[in-house]
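User: Please predict the structure of the protein below. I'd like the answer in structure-token form so I can feed it into my own downstream comparison script.

Assistant: Understood. Taking the following sequence of 263 residues as input:
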Amino acid sequence: MKILVLPDIHGRHFWKEPCNNIETYDKVVFLGDYLDPYNFENITVRDAIENFKEIIEFTKSNLDKVVLLLGNHDMAYFSKTYKSFSMWHCRHAYDDYEEIAKIFEENKNLFKIAHVEDDVLFTHAGCTSGWLKDTFTEQYKITSLDDLAFSLNNLLNTENGLRYLYMVSRERGGVDFNGSCIWADKNETYWDQVSKLDGEQRVHDIHGVKQVFGHSLQAFYDKDGRIVSGQPQEYFCCKMLDNRSAYVLDTEKFKIEQIKKES
């Protein structure tokens, strides 16, 4: 399969050009974080809201192909219960909260936490074995990726499930030992892949799962002071994408390529 993967949006427009050629892809997966733009990119909250509305309309016109995942920046708008826990971890459009929350509420059925396509698990920040055990008990075993995605998506339906999604590790300024699949830091997903678990030194099921996620900004300043995008970080079965560019994933080869912007 050929999948167009669109990491963290944050009001950016990089998704539009490749989506004009949607017929060339088998699936389009947005990895979440549609709003809360970075100040240094000079995108206003109003720009981000209008961009988000365009993404919604694009999705509605292509329901059979487009998947919208939720990121950590989306959850306080998506769920008032989640919002009640706290919002201090994220940049947040306080003055425009009601408008944004209404957009999410009116289109709630379009969003989910996890998606599986051709044996690849897509989430916003990646799943770690520690968080899976925290969430689904110490004895949790992955029976199938479809079942795992179902369990992850079902977390949206209960207050307890939302609290597990709210888990933020010290790597991201939180108090939990493990971050959730919308919060896990790149260090967490990396070290989880190389660590052995339990007294038997056996590897957890998730270590063999092909995962694609975003969440961690990989842009940097060049020698001329311009902001440029870094390359995706690939380790073991994980591909963590830079969140300023669109990518094409070949699921058969599990190969990812950045789409270069036309000049």
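That's the full token string. Residues 45-61 form the longest helix (17 residues).
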